[in-house]
Amino acid sequence: MWIKSYSIVTKEVTKEQMWKLFANVNNWHTWDEGIEFAKLEGKFEKGNFFILRPKGGPNVKVQLLETIENKMFLDVTKFPLAKMYDEHVFEETSQGLKITNTITVGGILGFVWRKIVAQKIVDNLPSDMQQQIKSAKNL
């Protein structure tokens, strides 16, 4: 199992603003330069799926495994002989809102998908999270 986390603490946004940003899956392309589109039919809740197309990549089906409004959500993407979990946590602290994103890859071919997909996501987390905060401020 391969696990990588990145956290940032900010006073620029609230957990409600961050939740609103992520719960509006169909608008992810407006703030995430790495995707062409994301499409969710129905609510941003446990058990639902959304389709995401990374720039230059194929459509990917993602399932929401857990959603706790204004606190966290966990999704999974299934690859051949591997799974990638993506967890987002919003935690209020005395220093500000702590935002943590954790990527976990497991399975027999997990090492392949880590190299092809997950490492790029992890490498971009610091800049992606800054963009998320910037976009959430307007909500």
Q: Could you write a compact summary of the structure shown?
A:
This protein is an alpha+beta fold. Helix content is 26%, strand content 44%.
Description:
It is a single chain. With 139 residues, the chain is of the alpha+beta class. It has one domain: START domain (Alpha-D-Glucose-1,6-Bisphosphate, Chain A, domain 4, 2-Layer Sandwich). 26% of the residues lie in helices and 44% in strands. It has two helices and seven strands. It has helices at 15-23, 110-136; strands at residues 2-10, 35-40, 49-54, 60-68, 72-79, 82-93, 96-106. The chain has a seven-stranded antiparallel sheet, with helices on one face. Strand 6 (82-93) and strand 7 (96-106) form a beta hairpin. The longest helix has 27 residues, at 110-136.
Number of strands: 7
Helix proportion: 25-40%
What's the order of the H and E elements? EHEEEEEEH
Summed up, the helix count is 2
State mean pLDDT (0 to 100 scale).
97
Radius of gyration: 14 Å
Q: Which outline best applies?
A: globular
CATH architecture term: 2-Layer Sandwich
CATH secondary-structure class? Alpha Beta
> Unreliable segments (pLDDT under 50, ≥5 consecutive)?
none
Helix/strand-derived category reads: alpha+beta
Q: Any idea what the CATH superfamily is called?
A: START domain
